[in-house]
Amino acid sequence: MSDILIRAREPADMADITELLNQPRAIWGTLQLPFVSVDARQRRAASSAPGDLHLVAVIDGKAIGAASLNRFENRRAHAGSIGMAVHDAYAGRGAGSALMAAIVGQADNWLNLARLELNVWSDNTRAIALYERFGFEREGVFRNYAWRDGAYADSVAMARLR
């Protein structure tokens, strides 16, 4: 994991992030649609809420993983939602763990968030194991949560309370 740098996402990262999210396995693990252009991703990034955290995992100058922490407002100001993905060619090299450590560290040590939550496909056992290592617990299953790759897929709601 020593060759992985975690840093804030920059506008120049959008080409790498687009490539990452257009990978078959990476897109399979998200709610994103495949074949999204760099321009569309740049527009979406520009519309992010000011309090959101966007990080990238970088190896040899290339953004190979991305994670976000979206903070809620008002009566849910104590909570945030996490999303992440890693480039298919770099899966299993520790980028997901490094991104999760950074997100959880920011939430705990700088934002004082008491609840972190996420949704993960019920058949994404590798991601579920990662989240469980960081203290996330299963809270329920959303049956037929979304259409993915030609069929409805279930999603597991997970959360980490501090």
UniProtKB/TrEMBL annotation:
<feature type="domain" description="N-acetyltransferase">
    <location>
        <begin position="4"/>
        <end position="162"/>
    </location>
</feature>
<dbReference type="GO" id="GO:0016746">
    <property type="term" value="F:acyltransferase activity"/>
</dbReference>
<protein>
    <submittedName>
        <fullName>GNAT family N-acetyltransferase</fullName>
        <ecNumber>2.3.1.-</ecNumber>
    </submittedName>
</protein>
<keyword id="KW-0012">Acyltransferase</keyword>
<dbReference type="Pfam" id="PF00583">
    <property type="entry name" value="Acetyltransf_1"/>
</dbReference>
<dbReference type="InterPro" id="IPR050832">
    <property type="entry name" value="Bact_Acetyltransf"/>
</dbReference>
<dbReference type="InterPro" id="IPR000182">
    <property type="entry name" value="GNAT_dom"/>
</dbReference>
<dbReference type="InterPro" id="IPR016181">
    <property type="entry name" value="Acyl_CoA_acyltransferase"/>
</dbReference>
<keyword id="KW-0808">Transferase</keyword>
